[in-house]
Amino acid sequence: MSRNYSLPIVALTLLSIGAVACGSAAAQAPATQGQAQPRWSHQDWPSGHYKVVEGWPKPLPDTRHSHDGWTWGSFGGVYAESPDRIWVAMRGELPLPKDAAPWTPYGALNPSRGNSNGNSDGLTATCQPEAKRGWERRFEHSIIVFDRQGNLVDEWPHLDKLFSQLPCGRGPHQIKISPYDKEKHVWIIDDQLHMIYRFTYDGKLVHSKGQLGVRGRGPNTFDRPTDIAWLPDGTYFITDGYGGKRVVKYDANDNFIMDWGDAPKDPRNPGPNEWNTVHSIAISADRRLFVVDRGHARMQVFDENGKFLDMWPLKSPSWPANQPTLFVNHFIDDKGFIWVGDAPTSRILKFDLNGNFLYSWGAPGGQAGRLNCSHGITTDQLGNLYLADCFAGRLQKFEPIAGADPDKIAGQILRTWDTWKRP
Fold it and tell me: For the whole model, what pTM was predicted?
C-alpha cells in the first residue's frame, strides 16, 4: 500500500489555464462572440476552495450583561445540526486590552496577548501553578447556538456554573449530537473536570459520567476525556484523553463494556495501543474506529472490539525535527474521506481511509480566514465548513466559492435523523 507522507506546509495550486492560439480564426471566434473559455487562474491559498464569511457570528447581545471591553473566548467545539442551528462550546469570555476594537479575537490583537485562554489566571491546563498573566476570563455563554446569519438563537446559561467550577473548571472541550439519535440529545465533554454529560435537546441533564474533579481510570472515572463517537445501535466510545491513554466503550444503556490502551513502554518508539494524547475519534461506514494519537502525531485504527488494525504517521518523516504538529480534530465525511485540523501548520488536511494524504489548505495569521487551532470541525447541509479556533479565540464559517472543485470541499457529516430541507 503506497502512502505519501510528505505534507507541504502551504499548497499553492494553479489550475490549468486554457490556451488560446494567436492568429487562429477558430481560436478568436469564442472571444469575439463573448464565449471565452472559463479559466482558473487564481491561487487556492490561503482558504482553498472556500471563502470566509466575514462578520459571522455576530457580536453577542447585551441582554444579560454588557460586553463592553469583552470578546470571544477560547472555542472548544462546534457542531452543525443544520445551517440555522450551529452549536458552539466556548470557554468563557476574555477581557480586551484598553483601546482594542470591540469583539477583536485574541488572535488578531496587536500587540498580542498570546493564545486565547480559558484557564484560571495562574493555573495551567492541568491545574498546576504557573506565572500570573495578569488577566482573567469571565465564564459566560458556554453553550450557544447561531443561525446562518450569525444571530444568537439559543443559549444555555444555566450550565455556566457547571463548567466553571474553580479552581480547575475551564469549560467544555467538545459538543456533539449522535448521528443516530432522533431525539438529538446533546453530549458535552469537560476535559478539565473529567466529566461527560448528556442533555435533552432543550438542556436538561439526563446522564453524566465521571466524578467531578477526580482523575482516574475506571468505568466511571476519567483523566481529561476529549471526544465521543457512536455506532448505529447507540454503542459509544470515549477518548480518554490527555491523561487517560485509552479508548472506553459503553453500550447504548451506558454500561461499561471495555477499554484499551496505555502509555508507551518506550516513549521513543511507541507501538500500537500506546498513546500520548487520545484526542479525537471518528467511525467509518464499515465501523472502523479512527483515533488521533495527537502527542505521537499519528492515526491509529481499530475495529469496534478494540482490535488494532492499522496506523500511520500524520507528520512527514522528511520534516526537520523542530517542525511541530498538533492534530486537534477530525471527522469522516459522507464520501469516505478524513478531514483533519493541524494547529502548528495552520491547515486542514484531507486523507483517504488508507492513510494517503490527498490535499490541504490553510495559512496562519490574525486575518479573517486564517487558521490557528481547528479544535472543532463540522459541516452543514449547504456545504459550509465551521471551525472552532481555540488558540485564536474565534469561530469561523467558510462557504464554498463559485466553481469550487468538489474534491476540495469537505463532505457531509452523518445525520440519519436529518429532516432539514433547503429553503
Answer: 0.90
